[in-house]
Amino acid sequence: MTERRLLLLNGPNLNLLGSRQPEIYGSTTLAQIEKSTRSVAAEFGFDLRAVQSNHEGDLIDAIHLAREDCVGIIVNPAAYSHTSVAIPDALAGVELPVVEVHLSNVARREAFRHHSYVSAVADAVIAGAGPLGYEFAVRYLADRIGS
Ligand code: DQA
């Protein structure tokens, strides 16, 4: 593979970042997160495909596509973390390194957010670091994948 590409996948309601419950999720927009993540990825020689969807099936399709042309996945499955079996099944099926990111510290929030089905198939989980979590995810994948 000549091109090294990461998939940055954001789930439902994350398109509203910036105005959605800023006391929990901060004021950074998804566009800003995608831009900063892309720029850190570029430092390590990675191209970045950023996808956000409010639909579970679209997220699964993006994961399947990553098998063709990506070397790692950064995913914030948002509320689907706590409900979806199909998303972790898809992630397990593509056999790429996966980092699960949550902007908020889900362990400190409501009990229903304490369990993520995705964590069982993630290589690393980052929660509570805000938008920086996505940057940490790139750094982890760069170290994991190597040059
Ligand atoms: C979230 C945490 C989830 O519980 C929630 O449903 C989200 C965002 C986070 O980034 O902190 O939508 O994944």
From TrEMBL:
Job of this protein = Catalyzes a trans-dehydration via an enolate intermediate.
- Return the annotated site residues (Transition state stabilizer): 20
Query: What are the leading ranks of the lineage?
Result: Bacteria, Bacillati, Actinomycetota, Actinomycetes, Mycobacteriales
Sites binding substrate sit at 76, 82, 89, 103-104, 113
Q: What is its EC number?
A: 4.2.1.10
Keywords for this protein: Amino-acid biosynthesis, Aromatic amino acid biosynthesis, Lyase
Q: Which GO terms describe its molecular function?
A: 3-dehydroquinate dehydratase activity
Show the catalytic activity: 3-dehydroquinate = 3-dehydroshikimate + H2O
**Active site per UniProt:** 25, 102
Is Transferase included in the keywords of this UniProt record? no
Task: State the name under which the record lists this protein.
Answer: 3-dehydroquinate dehydratase
Q: Which family does it belong to?
A: Belongs to the type-II 3-dehydroquinase family.
Q: In which pathway does it act?
A: Metabolic intermediate biosynthesis; chorismate biosynthesis; chorismate from D-erythrose 4-phosphate and phosphoenolpyruvate: step 3/7
